[in-house]
Every structure is written in structure tokens, then in C-alpha cells.
Amino acid sequence: MDQPTVRDRWLGAVCYLSVLVVVPILARQRSEFLARHCRQGFALLFAEVVVGLLVLAVESALGRIPVLGLLVSIVLSLAYWLLFLGISVLGFVKALSGEDFEVAGLEDLAAARPRPRARGRRTILTSPESTTPQRVETLVCGIAA
């Protein structure tokens, strides 16, 4: 495998700086190294938002309990920030040194891609008793088939 360029290393490192993942995604020329770090950084940003919303929901639910709510809120917030700060720093350093970086759960999320929608004509049965299907033209994605 070729060594990534200095530009790719820096852009790969920027992928782990939360919202700044958009900067490398908009880069015109993207090597496989940079594309991998962009996917990983975007998956990390997605996980930060989802887990942050979950922590916020738990804090608001348990925040009404005087002492226990405060302690749980502090522990959850601290764990949340330390976890994602640690992953971001590790990814930043690994990308800057030109190494690949994979977080077990995030790599599966980063590799997932949406399924393309089917285009063209579809065969639809008009009734369950019908043995010969009638062809019906449908609109898919706003384009007539």
C-alpha cells in the first residue's frame, strides 16, 4: 500500500474533529486512506450525536432526583466526553501518522451504506386471488418508469 501524502494525513486527522469532518468530505481528490478516515470520522460524529441525545434524555429523567440525579448526571457527562475525546485524539494521532484506525462498533457503522432504490417498472398483484399479475406503472423517486 502506498504511503499517504502529507495532505491526506492532515485531512484524515481533521476527520476526527467532530463537525469539521465536512472539510475532508468536500475534498475533490480523495485517496482510499482519506476516504476510510472520512467514513470513520462521520460515523464517530453520528455516534457522538446519538449517544449525546441518550445521555441528555437520561440526565433529564434522573435529574429530578436531588442527590442521585446530580451524581448520575456528572458521571454520565464525564464518561461521554472522555470516551469521545479519547477516540477522537487516538484517531487524530493515528491518521496523522499515516496508520489505519478502526473502532470496533464504528467500523460496522462506517461500512454500512444505504441501499439504492429500485428503478423502473414494478409488477403489482391487484388482488391476492389473481393468478396473472397486471402490470402497473409506478413512479419511483419522482421519475416515471
Structure overview:
This protein has 145 residues and is mainly alpha-helical. It is 57% helix and 7% strand. It contains 5 helices and 4 strands. It has helices at residues 6-14, 22-25, 32-62, 66-96, 104-111, and strands spanning 122-124, 134-136, 139-140, 143-144. The strands form 2 sheets. Strands 1-2 form a two-stranded antiparallel ribbon. A two-stranded antiparallel sheet has the order 3-4. A hairpin with a 2-residue loop joins strand 3 (139-140) and strand 4. Helix 1 runs parallel beside helix 3, helix 3 runs antiparallel to helix 4 and helix 3 (32-62) packs across helix 5. The protein is elongated and about 55 Å long. The protein starts with 5 loop residues before the first helix and ends with a strand. 19% of the residues are buried. Mean pLDDT is 79; it is low at 132-145.
What is the structural class? mainly alpha
Low-confidence stretches: 132-145
Strand content: 5-15%
Helix and strand string, N-terminal first? HHHHHEEEE
What's the arrangement of strands in the largest beta sheet? 1-2
Radius of gyration: 23 Å
Distance between the termini: 44 Å
The largest β sheet comes out as: 2 strands, antiparallel
What global shape is seen?
elongated
Please count the beta strands (DSSP E, at least 2 residues each): 4
Average pLDDT reading: 79
Question: What helical percentage do the residues reach?
Answer: 55-70%
